[in-house]
């Protein structure tokens, strides 16, 4: 037996040299057999050839090779024609510049985008950049699906560098200036794992705030905590318990970042001092996480028990610690440091300034079955379950008026409906006044004045260009 192994030990190096000699003419990434690709790609390697009897192939993973083969078969069996006569051919057999919809002459690569609810220039967006128009940038569960489907979009934020961040059911996406979308953290599975990229786990992330260094702070409702997403994609606990259930400290506690407790924190923003202000929704309180990461309540006295032992929440203005909210859901900080709060189940927009809470807009009515729609003077206007608020570069306050299926603006003491038809849910891209939404849940305004909207019921990220 020993002599047999000795013979093999002499033969194997010769075989190895033979393989190296046979592959010496290959360029980087080229191959003749799968074994040529070993160690050249991350994962299970394959030598993909097109056509299949080609002598030289390209190294890629097995997953990539399967996708490439499927695309090759599709091209080989398809057609490439110009059915609509617009000068650009379409079809699965086409290469190079391809018409994304060869049934419509108004749609082709390089066409001028117009406000017609179509992706005229085939760039993967609908009605983008057109003044006075509402369009779609991402998502959908029925045609047209833009880029890809999302599961349950719920939050949006525009970073200082212009990137748009989107929170989905258990994932965080980033859309860059070229509208390319990339998943940065999370997966299809819920959890609270502090890991990197797709290995990290989240559970119902909602509002976000992005600092100048590119860190994304996330209000994570189901995990009852605030998470921090670093520029390298690593997710860590920033404040709170990060579990779906309470521990011995309950779900409402001030103190150090690791002992503090939240109950469905749903939105957050940086105040003028650089601290984070957080909407602790199910505690009906506004809290602050200082730069030292200590958590304190800055507004809202919380709920009280009724005669039947149920915790109920009310509505009252006055000193911040005595004021009452009813499931506040959105927050934004103005240029003067004032804090705007979408007080969802009081159906109005509140303001925290100089230690006092007042009503900024809307005829506040306590109760989930109240609210309505009315434009006009801020004090007499009506909202229905407003869930999000943001401040534009001109100081205008924008509101996702969820229960009315529209986007509102507060400016100069007046409330107006900018996009959407009150009390009519649906999906339509076009002129802002004619657009339709289905339970818009979040709103964020960029430095360019673009208003990004999470249209939750339509599973889309929409954009308004006022």
Keywords:
2 helices, mainly beta, 5-stranded antiparallel beta sheet, 466 residues
Structure report:
- The structure is a single chain.
- The protein is mainly β.
- It has two helices and 32 strands.
- It has helices at residues 2-23, 62-77; strands spanning 30-31, 45-48, 57-61, 133-139, 155-158, 164-167, 171-175, 181-186, 205-210, 216-220, 225-229, 235-240, 265-270, 276-280, 285-289, 295-299, 304-305, 311-312, 318-319, 328-333, 339-343, 348-353, 356-361, 376-377, 386-391, 397-401, 406-411, 414-419, 430-431, 440-445, 451-455, 460-465.
- The strands form eight sheets. A five-stranded antiparallel β-sheet has the order 29-4-32-31-30, with no helix packed on it. Strands 19-23-22-21-20 form a five-stranded antiparallel β-sheet, with no helix packed on it.
- β17 (304-305) and β18 form a beta hairpin.
- It is globular.
- 41% of the residues are buried.
- Residues 1-23 have low confidence and may be disordered.
